[in-house]
Amino acid sequence: MEENKMAVMPVRRLLLHMSWPMMLSMLIQALYNLVDSMFVAQLSTDGFVALSLAYPVQTLMISICVGTGVGVNTILSRRLGERRPAEASAVAMNGYFLYLCCWLIFLIPGVLFSRPFLALFSDVPQVVDYGSQYLAIVTAGSLGVCMQFSGERVLQASGDAVGPMCIQGIGAVVNLLLDPLLIFGLGPFPRLEVAGAALATVIGQLVGMTVGLLLVRRSRVLVLQTRGFRPSRSVILEILKIGFPAMVMQSLATVMTLGMNKLLSFFSATGVFILGAYFKLQSFLFMPVYGLNNGLIPVVSFNYGAKKRERITGLIHFALIIAAGLLAAGTLLLLLVPGPLLGLFNADAAVLADGVPALRLVSLSFVFAAVGIIFSSSFQALGCPMLSLILSLLRQVVLLLPAALVLGLLAPRLIWLSFLLAEGFSSLLALVLYRRLYRTKLARLEE
Which of 161, 230, 360, 409 is the one with CA 20 to 30 A from 212? Predict the structure, then answer.
C-alpha cells in the first residue's frame, strides 16, 4: 500500500505543502471581505457601520462551521493515520450531515430576528435597515458556506492541499467580481446597495460549495457512498466531542466583538467605526496564520494517530516560527501606515485622530497572538480541545473585556492596550500548557 505523504514527507516541507494553498485562498477570502467593506463604505458611513454590527453574527456562523470542521478534520485524519479507511469515509459522510443541520440552525433565527438584533445596537433607522437586509440574506443563503466548509475539511484531512484552495479561491473571485456590480448597479445589474453585497457573498459561497462537491467526488483517498446513508449517533457524538469546544472557542470572537462594541460606545464616539475597520484589516493580516492552522491540524492529527512524536513536535515548532514572522510583519505595517489603512474605509478626521494611535497599540499584540493561535490548534489536533477553550476564553473574554473596561475608565485612549495584555498573558500560559502536555502525552508515544 502506498504511504500517505503525511506520514513520510519531511515535516517542514509537509507543513508548507499542506498550508500554502489554504493560506493563499484565505488571503483571497480576506481580500474580498476587505473590498466588500470598502465598497459599502463608499456607499455610506451607515452602510459600513451596519456591516460592522452584523459582523458578530457572521463570525458566529463561521465559528460553528469551523468548530464542526475541527471535529471532522481531526477524527478523519486520525482514522486515516490508523489505516481505517472505511471508518474515515463514515466520518466524512456524517460531517456532511452535520453541516446540513448547521444551515437549518442559521436559517430560521437569521431571517426572523435580524432586525431586532440590529435594533439592540443602533437607533439609526438606516443602519438597522441595511444591517437587517444583509443578515437576512447571508443567513438564508448560508447553505453555501456550510457545504463549502465540509468539502474543504474532508479534502484537507485526506491530504489534498490544493482542493480547499480551489474551493475558497473560486468562490472569493466570484464574490469580488459581483460586489461592485450588485452594490452600485453597474451595467445591466440592479442597484441593490448593502443587499447587493450580501447577495454577492451568498452566490460566491454557493459556487465554492459546488466546486467542493465535485472535488470530493473525485477523491482517491475516500470513497463516499450516499446511497443508503444513515446518520451514525456514535460518529456524530465523537465529532461534536472534539468540535464543540472549538465551536465555543471560535464563538468567543462574537462575544468579544459585542462586548467591545458596547464598551467603546461608552468611551468614544468613533470607537465602533475604528473597531469595525480594525477587524477587517486584522482578518486580512491574520488569515495566512489561520490558513497555516488549517494545514497544521490534519498533519498533527495524522501523526498523532501514527504515534510519531518527533514529527508532531517538529510541525508545531515550525508553525510557531512562520506564524510569528507573519504577524510581526503585520505589526510593522500597522505601526508605519495606520492612517492610509483607515482611509480605505473613508475615515473622517475624527476617526483618523483616534484610530491611528489605536491601531498602533493593538498591533503590539500580534506576535503574542500568533503563539496562542498555533498552540490552540495544536491542542485540538492532539485531542485536548478543553485546553484550547481555556486559552481562547482568556484571550478573548476573561482577560480582554475587564482590561478594556479598567483602561477605558483610566483613559479612553488606553482601551486598545487591553489586546496586548490579554494576548501576552495567554501566550505565556500556552507555553506552560504545551510543556505539560508534552510530558504527559507526547513523551509517551512510541516512535
Answer: 230
